[in-house]
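Appendix C reproduces, verbatim, an entry submitted by the partner laboratory led by Prof. M.T., so that reviewers can inspect both the input and the predicted structure.
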Amino acid sequence: MDRGRKALPTLNKHTDSKFYSRCQTIHKKKLSTIKSCIDNSEPTRPAHLRKNLKKEQMKEERYATIERENRILLEKMSFIMQHDTLDNKNDSIKHGHSLNKGQRKRDLERITAENQSILRRIQTRQPTYDHVQWEEEAKLHEKYAQNIREFPERYAGIGEGDEDFYDEETSRLQYSSSAASIN
């Protein structure tokens, strides 16, 4: 609030307020561009205090020990990869053998000989059933079953264009089997 300005008499209030606002902007501009007279920056340090040589030396020593330990670990790992991992082998110890080894071997030979003799007896034995006769009987039974069927396989295609469906031998078999069933 500007009380001091109102105490002074003015001829035109409008021009007076314009003049006053112009003076204020000029004053603010000067305040923003003003430079400080006091130096608040950090003072310069001497060169021997800027670098902490002891700290750098300790870092270098630490890195050197880390590198040495890494190299030792790498050598150990490569040795393990190149050689057997099991180090508790003792070749001087001979493992014991079974006391029953000879007995088991004799039993195995005896069983093998018995199996061979049984096989020879089976192969030389004449069969009691004649497989050739079985096959002939099976064919005959199939022929009988085909004659008994309502739609024999031979006549399944009747009406589909097969003209040569009539077989005299089959028809006679059908007739003779049906005549036999009537009597």
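Residues 175-181 have pLDDT under 50 and may be disordered. Additional entries are available on request from the coordinating office.
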